[in-house]
Specification:
81% of the residues lie in helices and 0% in strands. The chain has 231 residues and is mostly helical. Helix 3 packs antiparallel against helix 8, helix 5 crosses helix 6 and helix 7 runs antiparallel to helix 8. The relative contact order is 0.15.
């Protein structure tokens, strides 16, 4: 069996479809950005609910987190896009994909934030309240500024996972990068190797950029905490 390397790595597939590939890359960036923002909101809300002193609220939020973490993202995306129309709720492909990614990642973000908050010594909260600070002020000025640096590496890891998992959006026909490349290859069966190599490099650049951003933020926060500690 001989391999047609010229057909496998036909560079013309990339050049001839550059505009379509750019549109797919733009959609991937949009989907990832929306999902990251929504996941931060969902995760922050879940962290607050899980830490609630009302037992019923804490138990309900924990049950939700376990449900989301215990079921596949693909199933959740199918339910939002293909299941909700039976209830009279129809979502656009990119909305369904962004919500599925946000809900799924938000469950993990919530646990990350809760663990980071619990890692802050309780004595600091008690001391601030003894000085007359209210609960909200204590959380905003004492607890969260210390908890966020602890949570940052894991949070950035979730952001990177969202970028990679955004490829699943092709399942609900979101015209993102993976979907576009698959359609181009399916039309002519040429350039399979070069197209998916370009796709892999695209995701690699995105995830490497987020990793570099994470390291930069960690460095700045570490320097800030050191100055704060010696103040």
């Amino acid at each position: 069996m001989t391999i047609d390397w010229q057909a496998l790595f036909d560079l013309r597939q990339v050049t001839d479809n550059a505009d379509v590939l750019l549109a797919g890359a733009t959609t991937t960036l949009k989907l990832s950005a929306l999902s990251i923002v929504f996941a931060a909101v969902v995760g922050g809300l879940l962290a607050v609910l899980r830490s609630s002193r009302v037992r019923a609220v804490s138990i309900a939020s924990r049950a939700w987190i376990e449900l989301i973490r215990g079921t596949p993202l693909l199933v959740q995306m199918y339910i939002l896009y293909y299941g909700l129309p039976s209830l009279g709720i129809t979502l656009t492909p990119i909305t369904a994909a962004a919500l599925a990614l946000a809900i799924n990642s938000g469950a993990y973000v919530g646990e990350i934030l809760r663990a980071a908050v619990q890692a802050v010594p309780r004595a600091q909260s008690e001391s601030s309240r003894a000085l007359g600070m209210g609960s909200l002020v204590t959380q905003a000025r004492i607890v969260y500024p210390q908890a966020l640096p602890l949570a940052l590496p894991s949070l950035m890891g979730e952001a990177i996972d969202i970028v990679k998992w955004s490829a699943i959006g092709s399942i609900v026909v979101v015209p993102e990068a993976t979907q576009v490349v698959s359609q181009i290859v399916a039309q002519s069966y040429r350039g399979f190797g070069i197209m998916f190599l370009v796709l892999a490099l695209f995701y690699l650049v995105l995830t490497a950029s987020l990793a570099a951003l994470s390291r930069g933020l960690e460095y700045r926060m570490t320097r800030y905490r050191q100055r704060f500690a010696h103040a």
